[in-house]
């Protein structure tokens, strides 16, 4: 409805997509290590960290995030960041610390509906996963009562999207450490807090790009069942108001590059897939607890777009490679009336992608670098909560898993 008109208008407006980059951090770290001596410590948690390093696939790094090996393993002092992943200059934003979430979490998921941010699942530690939903109210700036997730729902690496009332949740990792994925999918009615099953995905995936587009729930890429191999598959199923209209998932045009942890958004009837990575931690063979062990990872900055033609188009890449950004973006000013900006937030930096000019910019910095953070935007404020933060301004390696909530008043340069 009115799509043509909308599209014309679109080119008159300024469309801005802002991404907060979170991942950069870890990445950085690795690069160095490859060349500096003792490598390991950067990852207390099995996430993100090796980017573009082509780092030998056998190294095992992970340990419990709360154990004390870190200092012992820390070989990172005095390193120099690779240019690819170095911090980018950007305006300092004034950040205000808000109430901590009820639990710290890494690799959780979040969906904003009006003034509520629903924050799902995630790791508390590498051996403990959450199975509930916390809810933040942007109007009262408080955390409300939590509620349970279905027992069969994945705890991390979820694909998730909302139509404004119903939240569609697909696949993901079931359990802690580097356990296997489930193909189970669910829909949550956020008004009644009732959950329903949906048909399972044809195959389970880790952190596939997930969006609603033209009446269908689309699920693309992610990692395959071994947690590592990038998947190119793209499936969709018709949905309306929380109800699935098809019997089964339909196969769609494969994505040009596979892998998990990308941002996926729909703006003006176009579907964008941004950043991500190939490879990830895998379960150590024969480990009874599916202990995570590090494998080679390549984080990338690719941007792809699907439109009417149903052919993937390549758009200008992000200012630096970025992954774990599936819930680190927001679309701002997404109304026909005040359509000035559309933003996506994603690594220490807040990136803006202006969709009319296809230009990327760094519009600010976070109070610290953080990965897998969860983002919302309300009443001019940009919020982020959770994830794994760095060790300090001079040390971009990952440290603590946080539940902190911060916000900043955003007024974006739109040129
Ligand atoms: C990684 O390094 C190996 C050996 O140096 C090389 O053969 C391979 O092509 C590299 N892979 C990538 C993705 O750069
Ligand atoms: C959020 O807080 C506002 C202000 O206190 C309140 O009016 C509103 O009902 C709350 N929203 C929900 C969903 O509880
Ligand atoms: C969004 O649009 C409104 C109205 O046009 C404007 O006042 C506001 O500054 C915009 N928000 C941002 C973050 O630029």
Automatic annotation (TrEMBL):
<protein>
    <recommendedName>
        <fullName>Kelch repeat-containing protein</fullName>
    </recommendedName>
</protein>
<dbReference type="InterPro" id="IPR015915">
    <property type="entry name" value="Kelch-typ_b-propeller"/>
</dbReference>
<dbReference type="InterPro" id="IPR053256">
    <property type="entry name" value="Kelch_repeat-containing"/>
</dbReference>
């Amino acid at each position: 409805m009115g799509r043509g008109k909308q599209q014309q208008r679109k080119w008159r407006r300024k469309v801005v997509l802002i991404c907060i980059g979170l991942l950069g951090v870890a990445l950085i770290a690795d690069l160095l290590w490859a060349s500096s001596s003792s490598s390991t410590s950067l990852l207390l948690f099995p996430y993100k960290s090796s980017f573009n390093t082509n780092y030998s696939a056998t190294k095992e790094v992970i340990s419990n995030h709360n154990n004390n090996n870190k200092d012992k393993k820390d070989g990172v002092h005095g390193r120099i960041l690779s240019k690819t992943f170095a911090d980018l200059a950007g305006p300092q934003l004034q950040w205000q610390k808000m109430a901590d979430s009820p639990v710290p979490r890494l690799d959780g998921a979040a969906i904003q509906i009006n003034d509520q941010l629903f924050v799902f699942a995630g790791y508390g530690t590498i051996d403990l996963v959450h199975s509930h939903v916390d809810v933040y109210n942007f109007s009262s700036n408080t955390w409300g009562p939590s509620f349970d997730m279905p027992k069969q729902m994945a705890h991390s690496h979820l694909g998730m999207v909302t139509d404004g009332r119903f939240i569609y949740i697909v696949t993901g990792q079931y359990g802690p450490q580097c356990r296997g994925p489930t193909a189970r999918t669910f829909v949550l009615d956020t008004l009644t807090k009732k959950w329903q099953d949906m048909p399972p995905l044809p195959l389970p995936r880790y952190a596939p790009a997930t969006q609603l587009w033209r009446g269908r729930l689309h699920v693309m890429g992610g990692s395959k069942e071994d947690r590592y191999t990038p998947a190119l598959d793209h499936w969709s199923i018709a949905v309306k108001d929380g109800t699935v209209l098809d019997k089964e998932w339909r196969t769609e045009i494969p994505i040009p590059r596979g892998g998990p942890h990308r941002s996926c958004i729909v703006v003006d009837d176009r579907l964008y897939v941004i950043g991500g990575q190939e490879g990830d931690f895998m379960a150590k063979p024969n480990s009874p607890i599916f202990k995570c062990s590090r494998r080679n990872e390549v984080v990338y900055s690719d941007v792809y777009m699907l439109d009417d033609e149903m052919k993937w188009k390549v758009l200008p890449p992000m200012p630096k490679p970025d992954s774990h950004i599936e819930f680190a973006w927001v679309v701002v000013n997404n109304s026909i009336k005040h359509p000035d900006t559309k933003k996506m937030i994603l690594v220490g930096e807040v990136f803006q992608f202006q969709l009319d000019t296809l230009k990327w910019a760094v519009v600010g910095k976070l109070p610290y670098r953080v990965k897998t953070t969860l983002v919302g935007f309300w009443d001019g404020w940009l919020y982020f909560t959770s994830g794994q933060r760095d060790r300090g301004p001079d040390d971009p390696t990952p440290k603590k898993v946080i539940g902190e909530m911060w916000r900043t008043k955003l007024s974006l340069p739109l040129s």
